[in-house]
Write a structure and sequence with these properties.
CATH topology of one domain: Arc Repressor Mutant, subunit A
Largest sheet: 3 strands, antiparallel
Number of strands: 3
Strand content: 5-15%
CATH architecture of one domain: Orthogonal Bundle
Strand order of the largest sheet: 1-3-2
Mean pLDDT: 90
Low-confidence stretches: none
CATH class of one domain: Mainly Alpha
Helix content: 55-70%
Number of helices: 5
Length: about 110
């Protein structure tokens, strides 16, 4: 999984590739339709699509003369699972710090109601 997730993070490091995924999250698109949304050449968009496909974030299918790009949610889910383990770790540490700080608080004195 480490090699796989490395490729996913490398692919997601580029803002254009993230924007392509944002667009594909709304529905399938051809490379030409995707290229129309960016101020870069169609070749540059094609290179970004190759990186996304190699990372397993998209698949391309052929339908007659058109090649459709589709997002693959499974790889995005792998990133979410990776991040989730760290969210849980930090939540546990925050709870332990909260408990420790609670024990440092002075208890009620006899004068207090």
């Amino acid at each position: 999984m480490t090699e796989s997730i490395d490729g996913v993070f490398a692919a997601l490091a580029d803002p254009t590739r993230r924007a392509i995924l944002d667009r594909l999250a709304t529905g399938d698109a051809t490379a030409g339709e995707l290229a129309a949304n960016f101020p870069i050449s169609a070749q540059a968009v094609s290179k970004h699509l190759n990186v996304l496909e190699a990372a397993g974030l998209i698949v391309r299918t052929r339908e007659a003369q058109r090649r459709w790009c589709r997002i693959v949610p499974g790889q995005v889910q792998a990133v979410a699972q990776w991040a989730e383990q760290y969210r849980r770790l930090w939540e546990q540490r925050y709870d332990a710090l909260d408990d420790y700080l609670g024990r440092l608080q002075p208890g009620p004195t006899k004068e207090e109601p």
